[in-house]
Amino acid sequence: MDPSETPTRPAPCPWTALVVIGAAAAAIRLYVGIRYNLSTSGDAIRGFQFYLDLAQNFVEGRGYHWDLYGPKFANRPPGYPALLAATLVTGVYPWGALVLQSLLGGFAAVLTGCFASRLGSARAGVIAALLVLAWPYSVMADTALIEHALLTVAVLCVALAWWRFARTAGAGSALLLGAALGAGVLVRVTVTASIPMVILAVLLAAPRGKRFRGVLLVTVAAAAVVSPWVVRNARTVGSATLSTDTWRALWVAHNDFTLEVYPAASIDGAERRAWRAMDPETRSRILGLSNDEVAQARVFRGLVLDWVRENPGQVVRGMFVKAGAFFSPVMNPPSDPPAWKSVAYTVSWSAAALGGLVGLLILIRRWREWLVVAALFAGFLASAVLTWGQSRFRAPLDVLLIAAAAVLVDRIFAGKRNLAGPGIRG
User: Which listed residue, 130, 289, 341, 372, has the most CB atoms within 10 A of its CB?
Assistant: First the structure.
């Protein structure tokens, strides 16, 4: 790093204000969770029930699994189900889950504010935290039966660890960066696609003499975090894999019905239609392997590879459709009534996307500090075009755009002519 690239002292995180805002964000999410996400009987949470099945089966001694074309023991990583399992063991589900997820939502507001203050000023941090406090999608999704809140916190930990690494290229920050990436993978396997993108960012941003060390430490730390899960899968199902569900997901994303159903409706409809239209012999073979998820995955792999070879044009077209759905300002799959939820989503996401992009542009001379934002979006997008993109898959990244948009708002209010401000110059 030459003298012109020496970073200036960052703005301090306004911790007192951020903690107050975070507490308010948690309270709002808890209210919404009780009001909208808790069933009328008070014993279930709206969302993906297979997460609860995973946690219940584990707690009740039936093994960590759920049923999908037979029992699946290495289908989903344990990050979010572990949170549910903790509330089941202590007997405080579903209320305990609502509280924990609300606290995660509040913590995300605090971390977003800290990231924004690092990019801009303490005031930008407060603005960012306030925006997250009222962010429509998170307010509704953080307490649903979905990994959104937990993954958002993991994404913000990656961003903050990156910011430190970009300024110092230190070994400790590289290890933290890798560990945060590994934690994200244990929440959602598709985060794996972001690891090579972040490694590329390390090669671009680190000083020449520290690039190899940075790549090595990030890789080692990420591998160390996910390796217990991989080893467990090797012992349980006989395959050292992050997930046995990859090929089934690719089959859902690459069949004759995918683009007939998606993205106008849930891609689950495409899976149901493809399953009904499947050759009876192949369907029987899949069901016959219901107790061998690794062998079953190989059947799905054959279906995927055959379809891709026969339909290259559809594959390319599908990639553009999926990328469009990933960045779409329209919620997909479509939300349930009332219509105002879709309107609120479209307005808020459009404003955050535009403000965030402009915010990053005015920080262009400090690109090293926020390069991880581009890396994470590229990784999530890569996963989306290979499988399918939906609003909820991209949503954990929204907080990064909110942080950049808060910097823009702060600079506008401050009336600064030099919008780029001080920092690392590229």
Answer: 372
Determine the 3-state secondary structure of 184 from DSSP.
Answer: helix
Q: Is the peptide bond before 10 cis (omega within 30 degrees of 0)?
A: no
The residue to which tokens 């050759």 are assigned = 279
47 three-state secondary structure? strand
End-to-end Cα separation, the chain, in angstroms: 10
DSSP structural state of residue 267: T
In contact, 72 and 53? CB cutoff 8 Å = no
Q: For the chain, how many residues are written?
A: 426
Would you state the structure tokens that stand for residue 275, as one six-digit string?
A: 């399953």
CA–CA distance, 347 with 61 (Å, rounded to integer):
46
Peptide bond just before 334 cis, omega within 30 deg = no
User: Alpha carbon of 80 to those of 53, 144, 352: distances in Å?
Assistant: 12, 12, 27
Closest CA to 79 of 183, 220, 233: 183
Output phi, psi for 254, to 5 deg.
-140, 80
Rounded Cα distance between 197 and 190, Å, is 13
Query: Which pTM value belongs to this model?
Result: 0.93
Tokens 């262009």, located at residue:
364
> For 66, which DSSP code?
E
Residues 352, 406 contacting (CB under 8 angstroms):
no
* Contacts of 366 by beta carbon, 8 Å cutoff, 6+ apart: 119, 420, 421, 423, 424, 425, 426
Residue pair 112/14 in contact (Cβ under 8 Å)? The answer is no
What pLDDT tens digit does each residue of the chain (426 aa) get? 433 344 567 778 899 999 999 999 999 999 999 999 998 888 899 999 999 999 999 999 999 999 999 999 999 999 999 999 999 999 999 999 999 999 999 999 999 999 999 999 999 999 999 999 999 999 999 999 999 999 999 999 999 999 999 999 999 999 999 999 999 999 999 999 999 999 999 999 999 999 999 999 999 999 999 999 999 999 999 999 999 999 999 999 999 999 999 998 889 999 999 999 999 999 999 999 999 999 999 999 999 999 999 999 999 999 999 999 999 998 887 777 677 778 889 999 999 999 999 999 999 999 999 999 999 999 999 999 999 988 889 999 999 999 999 999 999 988 754 554 544 333
Return d(Cα 413, Cα 91) in angstroms, integer: 49
